[in-house]
Design brief:
The chain is an alpha/beta fold. It is about 35% helix and about 15% strand. The chain contains seven helices and seven strands. The two termini are about 25 Å apart.
Length: about 190
């Protein structure tokens, strides 16, 4: 979820989040998970956020988003900022689900259809942020009937202590936890 150049990469508009991701090693750990998934024939779906240049279709009801939209070039469709960070692909076998509004990748996107077409019963949630996005992804996945697994080293929030509190006090009641190494080892069997 949103491991994009304009979110956590070289074009990040929220440096504090990019720093948290870097310090936690999220990109390296997620690359391990994606490589293992692809090798095991598990479909990888990148959940991206983007905005039209004219911002049409993007409600102005979220203070966080309103602040980001003050920059007219922020995360515009087709711009490098909307791409995945290079270490993660996408690989030609991967799918990309892009959303223009909302805080969850399930909001008015093809994500659920992609998952159902793959016969998925479980969502492996990676990315950002534990502050908002991963919570939304997890709740919506559960609402759609999926089991959720979160590799703890593949997610981050800021400050780091808050991210840990979200994992312990919110997400632990909705999802199962693992690590990138445990998941990769399981898929290699």
């Amino acid at each position: 979820m949103e491991l994009q150049r304009g979110v956590v990469g070289d074009l990040a508009s929220m440096p504090v989040l990019a720093k948290a991701v870097q310090e936690a090693g999220v990109v390296t750990a997620t690359a391990r998970v994606l490589g293992a998934a692809r090798a095991a024939g598990v479909r990888v779906i990148h959940c991206h956020a983007a905005f039209r240049a004219d911002r049409a279709g993007t409600p102005r009801n979220v203070p966080l988003v309103n602040g980001l939209l003050r920059n007219p070039r922020h995360m515009r469709v087709g711009e490098p900022s909307t791409e995945s960070v290079p270490e993660l692909g996408p690989d030609p076998r991967d799918l990309v689900s892009q959303r223009f509004h909302g805080m969850s990748p399930f909001a008015a996107t093809e994500l659920d259809a992609f998952l159902r077409a793959e016969g998925a019963s479980c969502v492996i949630a990676t990315g950002v942020s534990l502050n908002v996005g991963i919570i939304g992804l997890t709740i919506e996945a559960v609402n759609h009937g999926y089991h959720v697994v979160i590799p703890r080293d593949c997610v981050a929030g800021y400050p780091a202590e808050y991210g840990e509190a979200v994992l312990a006090n919110t997400l632990s009641r909705l999802a199962h936890f693992t690590t990138s190494e445990e998941l990769a080892a399981r898929w290699s069997r």
